[in-house]
Design goal:
Helix content: over 70%
Structural class: mainly alpha
Order of helices and strands: HHHHHHHHHHHHHHH
Strand content: under 5%
Distance between the termini: 34 Å
Low-confidence stretches: none
Length: 298
């Protein structure tokens, strides 16, 4: 998926006209991805929330503590202009990305914990993302918290609930569809990223190196902090690996859609670049973990 996103993004920068048509459909495309995510979930997947509330609560704290504050600090450190800074803040306040579950599996991490935490952060983002964006991003650009709330509800929460309902009440059809969801989701997110690259091609090519450095640092520091926090909290090694990807891998597609809907196309650049980079770094880190012996419990 990382190679596919990288190739299509490069093509979008070279021939923007090939992907500009995607931009108006970013929101419904992301809704389809969230619906597919919901179809892979069962109510029992949330049982971990009740059986191990401490681990999930600490994961939420790491997710919505590390990434938003890192985004805020990096925007100031690199003196990003307001529109670009808002895009970085949106990425930082977004919930964990579904790719984290696949990366955790490759890394021999705690997959049930990863799935439960991704699902929980996705739902909790309905309340936390607008508030955190207003608190941190309002320094640069006025933020409509109500508008963000409604958008997240439409793009994320409702499609996920409908997907869960489809799995519950149309189980046989859902089971047939599930094997096709990963490639369809990969193609869809690739189109979304390429579309954002296409409409911002000139701005990206003329952008300073700062935005690229911010995106890379944001992701790598998130991965590192996620793993380190797990070790500090004395999680076992598989769970530390899961938290590494949960914190460092963001739902940058959601951040991109919100940037387009409520701010400006330039604000969507950070989300598009993050989508490209996190798939490259995630693949490298997960393969590194896969070949590394599991450490004993702290």
């Amino acid at each position: 998926m990382g190679a596919l996103i990288l190739a299509c993004s490069a093509l979008a920068l070279w021939k923007p006209e090939l992907f500009r048509w995607v931009a108006p459909y970013v929101t419904p495309l992301l809704g389809c991805i969230m619906f597919g995510m919901g179809m892979t979930l069962r109510l029992k997947d949330f049982s971990l929330v009740f059986s191990q509330p401490r681990a999930l609560l600490m994961g939420l704290l790491a997710q919505f503590g590390c990434m938003p504050l890192l985004a805020f600090a990096l925007c100031h450190l690199f003196a990003l202009p307001p529109d670009l800074a808002m895009g970085v803040i949106l990425v930082g306040t977004a919930p964990g990305g579904t790719a984290s579950n696949v990366l955790t599996f490759i890394a021999r991490g705690d997959v049930p914990y990863s799935v439960a935490l991704t699902s929980l952060t996705t739902v909790v983002a309905l309340a936390l993302m607008p508030v955190l964006t207003w608190l941190l991003g309002g320094v640069w650009v006025p933020v409509d918290m109500g508008g963000l709330f409604v958008s997240i509800l439409k793009i994320v929460v409702i499609p996920v609930i409908l997907g869960i309902a489809a799995h519950r009440y149309c189980g046989r059809l859902a089971e047939r569809a599930i094997p096709f969801l990963p490639p369809v989701s990969a193609l869809t997110i690739t189109l979304v990223v390429a579309g954002i690259m296409a409409i911002n091609a000139q701005s990206i090519l003329e952008a300073s190196a700062n935005i690229f450095l911010v995106v890379v640092c944001h992701n790598l520091l998130g991965l590192a902090f996620g793993y380190a926090v797990g070790r500090i909290w004395k999680f076992d090694e598989p769970r530390c690996r899961a938290l590494c990807f949960e914190v460092g891998t963001q739902n940058s597609g959601l951040a991109t859609a919100l940037a387009l809907a409520h701010f400006s196309p330039v604000s969507a650049i950070a989300g598009a670049l993050f989508s490209v980079w996190q798939n490259i770094s995630g693949a490298l880190v997960s393969n590194y973990f896969h070949g590394k012996k599991l450490k004993p419990n702290p």
